[in-house]
Amino acid sequence: MGKTVAVIGAGIAGPAAVLALVEAAGLTGGRAGDQAGLQVLWVAPPPEAGHDPVGETLAPAANPILARLGLSDAMAAAGHRVSHTTLSSWGGDQLLDRNAILHLEGPGLVLDRARFEADLRRHAEAVASRVFATRVSDAGAGDGAWHLTLEDGETLTADAVVDASGRGSVVARRAAERHRADQLVAAHAFLPHRDDSVEPTRAVLIEAVETGWWYAALRPDGMLSVAYFTDPDLLGETPTRDLAAWTALVAGTRHIGRWIEDAGFALDAPPSLSSAGTTWLVPPAGRVDGAPWMAAGDCAAAFDPLSSHGMTTALWAGARAGSVLSTALEGDDTALEAYARSVLDGVAGFLAQRRAMYAQERRFADAPFWRRRQSAN
After folding, report:
1. I want to staple 169 with a disulfide (CB 3.0 to 4.6 A). Which of 85, 161, 173, 266 is the partner?
2. Radius of gyration (Cα) for the chain, nearest Å?
3. Together in a domain, 269 and 194
4. In terms of domains, do 189 and 265 share one?
5. Coil/strand/helix, residue 275
6. Of 275, 310, 338, which residue sits at a domain end?
7. pTM of whole model > 0.70?
8. Which of 283, 277, 275 is nearest to 345 (CA)?
9. Which of 255, 275, 295 is a domain's end point?
10. What is the pLDDT of residues 257-275, one digit of tens each?
11. What Pfam families is this protein classified in (predicted)?
12. Hey, what long-range contacts does 351-354 have (CB within 8 A, 24 or more apart)?
């Protein structure tokens, strides 16, 4: 009798897991289950109207993963912008130029993020056995299988689960504990370009300030993505409700504000707010009542955006689903255990890297935001 794997979550890690599971089943085309006895059930709520996801910088390390998933041609044809240059004011007042052309994996990309996610979804929908455009409302394991209840009342049974449902961890929270390194939040906005006489700089800019740090990147559609990262007690609620307060925050920067003003971008609405802290699950994979599961993407580990590896990590984790669960379904947990170790080793390595990155900024060493991170475990 064939096996069934349920993948929960849209975004990036979910469709990557679907593609990897189908590839591991040895299919060369068609839907999962047509040839290899594998059923891949994908629970993927559709994007909301006006969906404009945050985060557009894709690191060069993602390129070989996309190639393994068979997405290189789609990426080349999608209109994403090659990103060679990052300008950084970190540890000093002047901007330093870090050129990414030296990466062996090729250049990074500034994505049309909505199109990127739509393309991933389209490729995964083409091969999944069934797609359920809804969410999981309840989950549990029994008799060696996972039992999922969907929001529309339908129930599914699966031999294994990939939880790519983000920080909510709809399935994994039943089997793991979430750890947190900080309370980082992001106030973010997309600024329209109002001055056609100015050609905006095609770069990514990072700027440290006393209460946190800023990020800006010119998107392929010509809008400027701007985000301010800080702690909730240092931000307060005012900037997300009051345009004047948001404008004052931008004006307090040395480089971000100048880019916005000189290039003719419009600060015409307060920002949105989202969580951006470093969190992770322990364990990130295992079995419940004999049924294997693995977390992927932000569900497994969500990193401080300073790393610029959030999307790459999501692709990596999703791409591991095929090899990890194909062996686990045969009763061999070697790959499942190795995956769990890799995720936790990656978290430990990132936490050490994070301390080192924040320690490079000494101008604000006594300020609460920086002191918290330079002394964090």
Report:
1. 173
2. 21
3. yes
4. yes
5. strand
6. 275
7. yes
8. 283
9. 275
10. 999 999 999 999 999 999 9
11. Trp_halogenase (PF04820)
12. 351/181, 351/278, 351/376, 351/377, 353/307, 354/181, 354/278, 354/304, 354/306, 354/307
